[in-house]
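Exercise 7. Given the encoded structure of a 536-residue chain, write a plausible sequence.
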C-alpha cells in the first residue's frame, strides 16, 4: 500500500465505485484508494436500497461510464414505473386503477442487483490499478486547507494505519464520517419511515388477475419487470424484481398516518400487508421460507449544509443528502454529484478559479435537491388518490425530463456558460414547479383514497410524456432553442393539469396535443383499455 494518493474514497458502495471509475476514465494516471468497511466481495442481492434506476442514473451507468453491455447481460431491464390504486380493496388486481406504460419507453432503465453490480465494478477498478482495501474502519480525517494534503487514519483487521491524499471523498452512506466530523448535518422537514426485505423467489403481480384483457394491456410484456407500487393514503409498497428470480419488497409510510411500530419487523409487516395489501401479503406468505433479510430505517430523508469544498474534500451519495426512494432518485443524485466532483478533481489548476466552480456546483446541486424534495413534502396523504397522483406524476415526469434529465443527457451540467445563459428560465420554471406542488399538496391534505375502478392510464399514450422521453436520446443542433421549447411546453402543461385536477365532472371527448385524451380516462363511464375496447 502506498502512503500518498491523489484521491481517497471512504466507502466502496455504488457511489464510491462509480466515482473511482469516472475519475480513472477521465484521468487514467490518477492514483485512487478506496477504503471499504465491509468484506469484499459483497453478497449477491446485497441488502441495499437503490435497486431501481430511472433515466439519469441509468444513463450515467450505461453511457457515461460505458457499462451498457454489462448491465444488459447481468441485470434486468426495467419495464417502467407502475402504480396501482385501490389494490388493497380487491382480490383481482384488474379492478384497481393502474398508471404505467403499455410498452417500453425509448430511454432504457434497469433493476439492479446491487451486490452483483458492485462486485463487477470492484473487479474493473482493480484491473485499472485502483487500490481497494476492505475491512477498513476510517476513524478520523484530518482535513488540510489552502491546498494542503489530508490525512486519513483507519484500522484494518485491528491494525492502525494512515494515508495522505490530495482529495478525500466521503461515499460511506449513512456512516457519513465527513458530515459528522465537519458538523454539516442539516435536518429535513420531510419525515417518512421504511422497512424492506428480500425473498429468494419471484413475486409477479401478473399472477394477481385472471383477466386476459387486463394482461393484454401490456402487449405481452410482463408487469413483474416494472417497479410496481401499491398506493394508499400515507404509504406506498414497492415490488422490484432482481436477477436470479429474487424480489425486493418494501414499504415507505408517513408516521402521521401509519406508525413505524406497525411494520418495523417482518411479522408486523406481514400483518400490516394483510390488512392494507392482502394480495401482496398472500404472495409473501407463500414464499416466507425464502426470506433473505429484513431492514428498517427511520426518518429516511436527511440533508447536508455543504457537499464539497475548494479545500479538496467532497461528499457523495447517501453520505450527504437523501430525499425519498419514491421515483428512485438515488442513483440520479450519485450521477450528478459524481459528475461535479470528477470535474472539480480533474480540473486544471490554471483554469478559471476552482473555487468558483465549487460554489456554482454547490448552488446547482442544492437547487436540484430542493426541487426534488418539493415532490415529497406533505404529499404522502394523497398517495391513494388516483386523480391526484396521475396528474402529479404526469407533471413530475414532464418536469424531470424537461429540466434535470435534459441537462444531464445534453452533457451541460458542468458547462457554466450555458447554465448562466439559461439561469433566468431555470429560476422561472422552478417557481412554476413550486406552485404546482403547492396545488398537489393542498389536494393531498384531503386524504382521498380511491377504491379502484379498473381504469388504465397509459403513459405511452400521453403525448407529452412519450415525446419528452424520446427527445432525451434524440440529437439536437440548438440546445438553447430546445430548452426554450421545453420550458414553453411546461408552461402550457401546468394549467391543463390543474384544470383536470379541479374539475372532476368535466365533459368528455376533449383531447389536446400534450395530454391526448387523458381527461376522458378519469370518466368511469368510458370503458378502460382492453376491457371491451381496444384503446381508451
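Solution.
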Amino acid at each position: 500500500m502506498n502512503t500518498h494518493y491523489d484521491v481517497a474514497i471512504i466507502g466502496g458502495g455504488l457511489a464510491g465505485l462509480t466515482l473511482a471509475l469516472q475519475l480513472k476514465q477521465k484521468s487514467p494516471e490518477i492514483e485512487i484508494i478506496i477504503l471499504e468497511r465491509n468484506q469484499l466481495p459483497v453478497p449477491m442481492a446485497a441488502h441495499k436500497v437503490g435497486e431501481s434506476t430511472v433515466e439519469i442514473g441509468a444513463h450515467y451507468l450505461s453511457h457515461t461510464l460505458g457499462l451498457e453491455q454489462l448491465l444488459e447481460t447481468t441485470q434486468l431491464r426495467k419495464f417502467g414505473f407502475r402504480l396501482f390504486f385501490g389494490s388493497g380493496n380487491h382480490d383481482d388486481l384488474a379492478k384497481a386503477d393502474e398508471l404505467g406504460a403499455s410498452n417500453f419507453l425509448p430511454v432504457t432503465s434497469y433493476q439492479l442487483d446491487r451486490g452483483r453490480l458492485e462486485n463487477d465494478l470492484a473487479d474493473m477498478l482493480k484491473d485499472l490499478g485502483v487500490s481497494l482495501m476492505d475491512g477498513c474502519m476510517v476513524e478520523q480525517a484530518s482535513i488540510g486547507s489552502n491546498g494542503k494534503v489530508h490525512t486519513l487514519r483507519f484500522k484494518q483487521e485491528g491494525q492502525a494505519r494512515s494515508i495522505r491524499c490530495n482529495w478525500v471523498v466521503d461515499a460511506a452512506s449513512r456512516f457519513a464520517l465527513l458530515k459528522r466530523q465537519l458538523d454539516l448535518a442539516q435536518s429535513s422537514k420531510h419525515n417518512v419511515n421504511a422497512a424492506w426485505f428480500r425473498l429468494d423467489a419471484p413475486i409477479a403481480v401478473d399472477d394477481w388477475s385472471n383477466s386476459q384483457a387486463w394482461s393484454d394491456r401490456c402487449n405481452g410484456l410482463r408487469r413483474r419487470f416494472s417497479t410496481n407500487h401499491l398506493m394508499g393514503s400515507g404509504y406506498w409498497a414497492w415490488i422490484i424484481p432482481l436477477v436470479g428470480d429474487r424480489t425486493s419488497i418494501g414499504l415507505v409510510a408517513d408516521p402521521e398516518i401509519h406508525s413505524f411500530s406497525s411494520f418495523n419487523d417482518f411479522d408486523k409487516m406481514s400483518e400490516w400487508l394483510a390488512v392494507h395489501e392482502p394480495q401482496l401479503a398472500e404472495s409473501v406468505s407463500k414464499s416466507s421460507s425464502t426470506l433473505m433479510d429484513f431492514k428498517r430505517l427511520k426518518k429516511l430523508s436527511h440533508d447536508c449544509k455543504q457537499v464539497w469544498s475548494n479545500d479538496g474534500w467532497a461528499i457523495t451519495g447517501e453520505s450527504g443528502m437523501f430525499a425519498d426512494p419514491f421515483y428512485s432518485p438515488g442513483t440520479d443524485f450519485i450521477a450528478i454529484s459524481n459528475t461535479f466532483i470528477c470535474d472539480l478533481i480533474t480540473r486544471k489548476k490554471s483554469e478559471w478559479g476552482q473555487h468558483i466552480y465549487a460554489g456554482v456546483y454547490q448552488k446547482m446541486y442544492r437547487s436540484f435537491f430542493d426541487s426534488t424534495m418539493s415532490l415529497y413534502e406533505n404529499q404522502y396523504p394523497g398517495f391513494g388518490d388516483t386523480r391526484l397522483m396521475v396528474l402529479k406524476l404526469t407533471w413530475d415526469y414532464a418536469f424531470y425530463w424537461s429540466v434535470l434529465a435534459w441537462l444531464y443527457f445534453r452533457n451541460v451540467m458542468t458547462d457554466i456558460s450555458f447554465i448562466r445563459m439559461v439561469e433566468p428560465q431555470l429560476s422561472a420554471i422552478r417557481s412554476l414547479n413550486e406552485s404546482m406542488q403547492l396545488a398537489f399538496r393542498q389536494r393531498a391534505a384531503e386524504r382521498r383514497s380511491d377504491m379502484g375502478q379498473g381504469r388504465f392510464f397509459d403513459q405511452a399514450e400521453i403525448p407529452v410524456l412519450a415525446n419528452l422521453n424520446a427527445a432525451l436520446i434524440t440529437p439536437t443542433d440548438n440546445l438553447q432553442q430546445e430548452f426554450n421549447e421545453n420550458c414553453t411546453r411546461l408552461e402550457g402543461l401546468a394549467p391543463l393539469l390543474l384544470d383536470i385536477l379541479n374539475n372532476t365532472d368535466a365533459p368528455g371527448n376533449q383531447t389536446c396535443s400534450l395530454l391526448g385524451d387523458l381527461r376522458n380516462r378519469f370518466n368511469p363511464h368510458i370503458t378502460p383499455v382492453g376491457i371491451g375496447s381496444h384503446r381508451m
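Remark. Confidence is low (pLDDT under 50) at residues 526-536. Students should compare their own answers with the one above.
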